[in-house]
């Protein structure tokens, strides 16, 4: 029996490696060299001349200028971090609620699934940009429904700003929920129905079953959606940090060029990694507590 388990484990590992092989080959052939060169560029003063690219060592100069002298980059980085902190929990919660509703016995379930997934297909950066310009991405008249000035008299200003941001961006949040809803529905469909029957026999309500059974069981899917949401928002074409990097890449002078853009890219990547680690550790910590 032990030998059979060892053979099965090796077979699964080999099959997994075969599935990952196209990505590994593509990464080594197409991505590894540009990544290495971007590290070299970030510590260099790069100029494009008629006879090629000229690289001169510059040390930490690009990083220092980006964090100390370039207020536009620092502001864009702060706005990005705040947006991630606000977007990720809301998108995750809204996606879970919609998935729970679609997973129930309702008529037209397939239509609603398509309806929520459709923005994933049709909305790109330019399309969403047009929607934002036309005012489609926000609730019209939201200021008349909520008196934010009166609210700020009793509620801390940062909470008022967060509420104002979320109400104005709620339609955008719904547009970004398509993939997450499908992931949650996949997790919900894999849950064992017998445990809910046993819980009902023991007198547990549906609310208690959700908190004690459903939520702990789909925690891995929550982590997947959190990671996907952070990556999706970080790579979105309308991201102000990406726009800043692209604009400075082809510019000239101090605080511009390939070297400076590479330095900003690596700073942005480190901020992204920190946000990913923080969010994953939060949910992993909760998962370990439940296991104990």
Question: Which structural traits does this protein have?
Answer:
292 residues, mainly alpha, MetI-like fold, two-stranded antiparallel sheet, 15 helices, globular
Description:
The chain is mainly alpha-helical and 292 residues long. The protein contains 15 helices and two strands. It has helices at residues 2-42, 61-69, 71-103, 109-122, 125-134, 142-145, 148-152, 157-168, 170-175, 178-189, 193-201, 206-217, 219-235, 240-249, 258-291, and strands at 44-49, 52-57. A two-stranded antiparallel sheet has the order 1-2.
> Could you spell the SSE succession in H and E letters?
HEEHHHHHHHHHHHHHH
Structural class: mainly alpha
Number of domains: 1
State the share of residues found in helices, binned by percent. over 70%
Helix count?
Answer: 15
How many E-type strands?
2
**How would you sum up the major sheet?**
2 strands, antiparallel
* Arithmetic mean pLDDT: 80
Query: Any idea of the CATH topology?
Result: MetI-like fold
Concise account of the structure shown:
With 292 residues, the chain is mainly α. It is 78% helix and 4% strand.
Q: What's the structural blueprint in terms of helices and strands?
A:
Blueprint: H1 2-42, E1 44-49, E2 52-57, H2 61-69, H3 71-103, H4 109-122, H5 125-134, H6 142-145, H7 148-152, H8 157-168, H9 170-175, H10 178-189, H11 193-201, H12 206-217, H13 219-235, H14 240-249, H15 258-291
Antiparallel strand pairs: 1-2
């Amino acid at each position: 029996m032990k030998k059979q388990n060892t053979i099965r484990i090796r077979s699964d590992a080999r099959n997994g490696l075969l599935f990952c092989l196209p990505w590994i080959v593509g990464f080594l052939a197409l991505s590894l060299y540009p990544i290495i060169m971007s590290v070299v560029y970030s510590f260099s003063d790069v100029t494009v001349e008629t006879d090629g690219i000229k690289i001169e060592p510059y040390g930490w100069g690009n990083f220092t200028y980006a964090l100390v002298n370039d207020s536009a980059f620092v502001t864009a980085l702060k706005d990005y971090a705040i947006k991630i902190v606000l977007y990720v929990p809301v998108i995750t919660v809204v996606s879970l609620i919609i998935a729970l509703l679609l997973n129930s016995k309702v008529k037209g379930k397939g239509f609603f699934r398509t309806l929520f997934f459709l923005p994933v297909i049709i909305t790109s950066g330019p399309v969403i940009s047009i929607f934002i310009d036309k005012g489609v991405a926000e609730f019209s008249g939201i200021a008349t429904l909520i008196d934010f000035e009166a609210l700020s008299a009793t509620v801390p200003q940062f909470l008022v700003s967060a509420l104002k941001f979320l109400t104005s961006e709620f339609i955008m949040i719904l547009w970004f929920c398509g993939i997450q809803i499908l992931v949650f529905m996949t997790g919900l469909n894999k849950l064992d129905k017998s445990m809910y029957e046993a819980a009902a026999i023991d007198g547990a309500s549906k609310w208690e079953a959700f908190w004690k059974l459903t939520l702990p069981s789909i925690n891995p899917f929550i982590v997947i959606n959190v990671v996907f949401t952070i990556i999706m928002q970080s790579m979105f074409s309308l991201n102000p940090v990406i726009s800043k990097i692209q604009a400075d890449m082809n510019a000239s002078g101090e605080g511009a060029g390939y070297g400076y853009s590479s330095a900003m890219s690596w700073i942005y990547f480190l901020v992204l990694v920190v946000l990913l680690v923080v969010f994953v550790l939060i949910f992993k910590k909760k998962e370990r507590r439940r296991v104990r």
